Amino acid sequence: MTQIHRIARSPCRRRAFRHLLARPSSGRGDDPDMVLDASGTIAVDAFTGAMLLANVEHHLGRDRVFRARVAAPPSGEILGRFADMLAFSPDRCELELPAGQTAPVRDPRLLVPAVRIRSMDEADAFAVFLGSTSQAGHLDDARLSPEEAGFLAAALPMLAENSLAYAPNSSCGTIVCAALDADTREVQLVITDLGTAVSRSPESLTRLREAWTRSREARGGLHYTAELARRRQLDVSLQIFTGDATARWRGRLHSDHAERVPGWTTAITIHR
Q1: 183 near 81, Cβ under 8 Å?
Q2: Residue partners of 28: CB distance under 8 A and separation at least 6
Q3: What does the pLDDT look like over 133-170, one tens digit per residue?
Q4: Exposure winner among 37, 51, 63, 125, fewest CB in 10 A?
């Protein structure tokens, strides 16, 4: 039996959460084979990559015989971006390319493909990788400055450490994805997990605000990231999504209730 999830045309930014642990379009949620059908998708970003891989990891972690298949968009630039985004898919997950398509053209704006981080050693390694890919010459005028690249390389392990420490039982582990926006020069770094301590709490907003306060008092990852952006005089926003709460920092913190989402996601955007 197969559960099929049809991915929207543009599952970007907050819209990507609509696919996270969503009910299948057909089949049952406990069917052992899962298909993520992105054949009609025309735009993706770092949020898309993080959410799709979180779904795959969550599904495969339920049983060793479970399998996943991801149907890629049919052609064009979106196919290369999508294939790069899921280049680090786990075993038992197949990326299905369109008929006759064998090697899509790579998209250099995909800075870190969606990947599961299992340790701080891996987080540090991908931070170095991100620092390198974000300054590659073939990005032309979209290439990050040394200050921007250094900021992202410092932020990635700090935020991944938060996820590894506070969501050790996350059913998808800790997922990271980073990309330049396809239509602008903005840069996104997304870190997500499916930890339940805050997202399933009836007081998600209170718990989120408390986490921000603790981070500020202890100079933890969230506060460190915000202060680093301020010191480097970068125009950065930091967003948090968990349960029915959301927060956004861009010089100051604003938090409120929002549509409920699973887990905890922290997203950094460099506005350029």
Answers
A1: no
A2: 1, 3
A3: 999 988 988 999 999 999 999 999 999 999 999 999 99
A4: 63
Across the chain, mean pLDDT equals 95
Domains and CATH numbers, the chain: 2-270 (3.30.565.10)
Backbone angles phi, psi at 244, to 5 degrees: -100, 30
What does the H/E/C string look like for the chain?
Answer: CEEEEECCCCCCHHHHHHHCCCCCCECCCCCCEEEEECCCCCCCCHHHHHHHHHHHHHHHCCCCCCEEEEECCCCCHHHHHHHHHCCCCCCCEEEECCCCCCCCCCCCCEEEEEEEECCHHHHHHHHHHHHHHCCCHHHHHHCCCHHHHHHHHHHHHHHHHHHHHHCCCCCCCEEEEEEECCCCCCEEEEEEECCCCCCCCCCHHHHHHHHHHHHHHHCCHHHHHHHHHHHCCCCEEEEEEEEEEEEEECCCEEEEEEEEEEEEEEEEEECC
Question: Cα–Cα distance between 216 and 223 in angstroms, integer?
Answer: 5
- Where residue 100 falls among pLDDT bands split at 50, 70, 90? confident
Q: What is the CA radius of gyration of the chain?
A: 18
- Picking from 83, 9, 67, 64, the residue whose alpha carbon sits closest to that of residue 41 is 9
Residue 240 sits at φ, ψ, to 5 deg, of: -130, 135
| pLDDT band per the 50, 70, 90 thresholds, residue 219 | confident
